[in-house]
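All the exercises in this workshop are built on plain-text protein records. Instead of coordinates, the fold is spelled out as a row of discrete tokens. Once this layout is familiar, the rest of the handout is easier to follow. The record below serves as our worked example for the rest of this section.
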Amino acid sequence: MWGIIMSEKIWNVLFLCTGNSARSVLAESILNRDFGAKFKGFSAGSQPKGHLDPTVLALLEKTNHPTGGLRSKSWDEFARPGAPQLDFVFTVCDNAAGEVCPAWPGQPMTAHWGVPDPAAFEGSEAEKAAFCGEVMRMLHNRIGVFAALPIRSLDKLSLQKRLDAIGAAQPINVLVLCTGNSARSVLAECLINDLGGGKWKAYSAGSHPTGKVNPLSLDVLREKGHSVEGLRSKSWDEFARPDAPRMDLVITVCDNAAGEVCPVWPGHPSTLHIGFPDPAAAEGTVERRLAAFREVYGMIEAKIRKLIEVGPERAGEV
């Protein structure tokens, strides 16, 4: 078996992209922080920019990922005598955006795990930070699957198939829409992401966003064990831009019974309406309003669990 022949050692992994300022740097830092007991990560670029993207660097520092020694550098450094002997080389360029990935010579195991380029994102600082966070999540999911592989017990062909499958696996993208994007759609976004096991990726937006997530939404999410990092009230216009993720399913969660008018999404993704009452409309004491949020959270959770069970092809059964 190929894995058995390999000596007991730390596996050297090189992440490659074009500029080595964002994606490959994120991957290097993720691997070294979370899986450093088994792997040593490096990164490089075929046409390095010579500097790190400041939003990416800020995100790494904010999330307690190592940044010491990170720099934008040429892949030529890893072809020199005395360079680390590489066991794996992964390219993270985005073929969907027309990028050309560098090809690595030699005999390491290789695979393509393309993700969008945060350095190319256009928008506000807050929007770019959120986009960087999403790319980090995508990379962390793929790296986590890789790190869990039984490398030493797989023959080379089987391992290559596993590596290729990691890059080919794309999550089901879901956009949850309501009017204000402060309560129901935010609750649904968190539930899909946390219950979807990495196979679903949810976003939320509003046709008339309030600009602020309802504090009681955040309270209930924290109470239920969800992370609220990066949640914000935003316009659906963000998801109509050319660089926005392509949606597989758009869900509206407005309450037609209350006379709300749901936004209509253009294009051709599958659409689904699952109406819920607006907990933000509840009146009374803080505890009574919080109880309304808990109740709606429970309603949304039941529907999301059913959706994940049946899959997007049978979403109409939810």
Notes: The helical segments are 2-5, 23-34, 54-62, 125-147, 156-168, 184-195, 215-223, 286-310. Residues 286-310 form the longest helix (25 residues). Confidence is low (pLDDT under 50) at residues 1-7.
